[in-house]
Automatic annotation (TrEMBL):
Stored InterPro entries: GP_PDE_dom, PLC-like_Pdiesterase_TIM-brl
Catalytic reaction equation(s): a sn-glycero-3-phosphodiester + H2O = an alcohol + sn-glycerol 3-phosphate + H(+)
Family note: Belongs to the glycerophosphoryl diester phosphodiesterase family.
Name the UniProt record assigns to this protein: glycerophosphodiester phosphodiesterase
Organism annotation: Vibrio ezurae NBRC 102218
Keyword tRNA processing found: no
Length: 386
């Protein structure tokens, strides 16, 4: 429930309640309350005239409700407008019909797993620099010096803090101002295509808490094992394999069915580890790629026992004239028998219309999952196209 009053927005307590791993007080979205908002219609309006626009317009005008979609993956939640990897962002994504949610998994100095996109992003994604913990950062804030061409610096790593310290922080929109001369200027840099409207809470989450929340929301889970530096592993007393095992163990401890989990990594060794050591979870292990450099061929990936590849979507689609079409690489993957997941819609990786891209990814390339910073976009296309 949202009420408007003279420019002020009041959010219901159930939406912004602090995360409690024992009692999350979240009702799983149902077919009756999936909310897509105005953005899908806005994107339809931007489409060139043609069959796709006609079909999606008809769907907008005639469909009374939308169903949850497992094609729709909440990339860090819904970070186009909500602070990433926060409870609020995850709940928003589920309410937009995302059938799968992502916790990128990093760890603290006491080896506790937490949801962060990187081991080294707390200075841009949380309020840590404005707290008493700022002095513990690997690189405390230093102001820009325009006269000498020096940019502002800071680096705050998850491994700089204990779990209790991490949980005391608040999430914010991922941004920083390299020309800042004060902490306030450094933190206040949200790009124009995003918003701070929903950044007033930003409840950080542990990996275990994300599992509990996702179970309550009735969605599947796709954790990404983030690659730590040697200093992170040393601080927590972990090896890479122990980190990979620890992440899977938390799903086992929570009683999550392996079929509900898609563990991901950019390190193919991690995926091979899951295939060899936790084969029930390795069955849906996802190998992430962002280029074709030093990447095994699709056939070689299949030989390693990996079933799913997740390239960045500009590797899968291109323009032929005015039309978005599948690339030769996308067709090679399909021919190999690998399943395809891709990332990330609503992140401005191309200037193609988002709906055209999603339509090709779903209906021509047969992707089984599409990450989006605003999951309503993928939910909409999945509900409105065959």
């Amino acid at each position: 429930m949202i009420r408007f009053k003279t420019g002020f927005v009041f959010l219901s307590i159930s939406l912004i309640a602090a995360c409690d791993s024992e009692s999350l007080d979240i009702e799983a979205p149902t077919e009756a309350n999936i909310q897509l908002g105005p953005r899908p219609a806005y994107l339809v309006d931007q489409l060139a005239e043609g069959e796709l626009k006609d079909n999606l317009t008809s769907c907008l005008n005639n469909r009374s409700h939308f169903e949850k979609s497992e094609l729709s993956i909440g990339h860090r939640g819904a970070p186009l407008m909500f602070p990433e990897h926060t409870k609020e962002s995850y709940v928003a994504a589920a309410r937009m019909g995302a059938g799968v949610l992502e916790c990128d998994v990093a760890f603290t100095s006491d080896a506790e797993l937490v949801c962060r996109h990187s081991h080294s992003d707390l200075h841009t994604t949380t309020n840590v620099l404005a707290t008493e913990l700022a002095d513990k950062c690997s690189i405390p804030f230093t102001p820009a010096d325009e006269l000498n061409g020096v940019k502002a610096q800071a680096e705050c790593r998850t491994s700089d803090f204990t779990l209790a310290e991490f949980k005391s922080l608040q999430g914010k929109m991922d941004a920083y101002n390299p020309n800042a001369t004060t902490v306030a200027e450094y933190m206040d840099a949200t790009p124009s295509y995003r918003t701070d409207l929903y950044a007033g809470t930003g409840t950080l989450m542990t990996h275990r808490e994300s599992i509990a929340l996702f179970k309550e929301l009735g969605v599947k889970m796709t954790p990404e094992l983030k690659t730590p530096d040697a200093q992170d592993l040393a601080a927590a007393g972990l090896t890479q394999e122990e980190f990979a095992q620890k992440m899977i163990q938390e799903y086992i401890d929570a009683g999550v069915a392996p079929s509900d989990v898609y563990p991901q990594s950019f390190l193919i060794d991690d995926v091979e580890y899951w295939v060899a050591n936790t084969p029930e979870f390795g069955e849906q292990g996802v190998y992430l790629t962002f280029s074709l450099n030093n990447v095994p061929t699709p056939a070689e990936i299949v030989e390693k026992g990996i079933n799913i590849i997740a390239p960045i979507y500009p590797l899968l689609v291109t323009k032929s004239g005015d039309e978005v079409v599948a690339t030769d690489y996308a067709n090679e993957i399909k021919e190999s028998g690998l399943d395809i997941i891709t990332w990330t819609i609503e992140r401005q990786y191309t200037d193609y219309n988002e709906l055209e891209v999603v339509n090709v990814l779903k209906n021509d390339i047969n992707a089984i999952g599409i990450f989006s910073d605003w999951p309503a976009t993928v939910t909409f296309v999945d509900n409105c196209t065959e």
